[in-house]
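Retro notes (design track)

What went well: tokenization of the new backbones is finally stable.
What didn't: we kept losing track of which sequence belonged to which structure.
Fix going forward: every design gets posted as structure first, then sequence, in one message. First example under the new rule, 312 residues:
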């Protein structure tokens, strides 16, 4: 036995006398490299999120029976307005619940839809980290986009905070208008945010409003059409004046709102009194017909104008 061991050592001896082949214990591959346990330990170490389900037609058909009418309504809302905060979704889809349980139900539903791969929670929060779950901002994830019917499906891109503030302001206006309709103040006929509304004003001169809103008052048989510009006090006065003149030029060129024979009035919403005064000075310098086309208003009072059909 000893002679055989010496022969094996000689067989594995390197031609360089200072180096020898060393026998290393074979690793336990089942323990360390098993697929499930390795992936699980990797996620625990790195904190990686679970893989989202594939957004195929079969996945959409499989997940549809699991969704309630409210789930589908949330997906339709996000498919229309692109982004919404937790509070916007609560106001739109959880308003009939008791105030004591509304936030909890909203949080449970949005977390479930996120885990199913229907919603994506964006990194930024409204109000910062102290806002808690009420400050989360949501968009449709891949599977939610498929379910909504989006043709060009892609992951929600990372957006800058100025962009999100502007987009959330448009969503806020939609939530205000829906609340006014529920309270019997108006009838909402159409709310088309950008970019879907860009081709609704037909003519040789193109304008790009932030939204097109069509309403009907509760008393009366006429319809009001608005091209909405949500101002966040970030544009220079010169740029804002050029934008308002663009609407006037489109009006003079005979442009009309699709499906109607009229040109919409311009509802300019602003964040505060200081910006409102600045916008009023800009409008005063416009031609008279152009100035009559624009209705400036504070953002939180925009529904009053929509309900009354014009400035009060």
């Amino acid at each position: 036995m000893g002679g055989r061991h010496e022969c094996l050592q000689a067989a594995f001896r390197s031609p360089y006398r200072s180096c020898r082949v060393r026998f290393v214990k074979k690793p336990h591959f089942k323990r360390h490299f098993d697929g499930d346990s390795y992936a699980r330990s990797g996620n625990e170490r790195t904190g990686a999120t679970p893989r989202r389900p594939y957004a195929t037609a079969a996945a959409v058909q499989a997940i549809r029976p699991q969704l309630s009418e409210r789930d589908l309504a949330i997906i339709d809302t996000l498919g229309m307005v692109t982004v919404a905060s937790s509070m916007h979704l609560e106001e739109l889809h959880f308003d009939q619940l008791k105030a004591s349980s509304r936030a909890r139900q909203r949080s449970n539903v949005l977390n479930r839809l996120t885990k199913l791969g229907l919603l994506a929670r964006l990194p930024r929060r409204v109000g910062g980290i102290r806002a808690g779950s009420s400050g989360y901002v949501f968009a449709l994830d891949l599977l939610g986009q498929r379910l909504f019917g989006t043709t060009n499906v892609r992951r929600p891109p990372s957006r800058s905070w100025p962009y999100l503030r502007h987009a959330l302001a448009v969503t806020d206006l939609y939530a205000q208008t829906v609340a006014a309709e529920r309270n019997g103040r108006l009838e909402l006929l159409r709310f088309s945010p950008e970019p879907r509304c860009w081709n609704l004003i037909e003519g040789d001169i193109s304008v790009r409003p932030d939204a097109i809103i069509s309403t009907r008052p509760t008393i009366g048989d006429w319809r009001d059409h608005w091209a909405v510009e949500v101002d966040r006090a970030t544009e220079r006065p010169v740029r804002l004046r050029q934008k308002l003149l663009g609407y006037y030029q489109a009006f003079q060129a005979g442009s009309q709102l699709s499906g109607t024979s009229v040109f919409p009035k311009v509802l300019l919403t602003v964040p505060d009194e200081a910006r409102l005064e600045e916008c009023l000075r800009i409008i005063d310098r416009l031609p008279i017909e152009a100035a009559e086309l624009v209705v400036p208003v504070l953002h939180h009072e925009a529904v009053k104008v929509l309900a009354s059909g014009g400035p009060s």
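Added context from the reviewer: Residues 27-49 have pLDDT under 50 and may be disordered.
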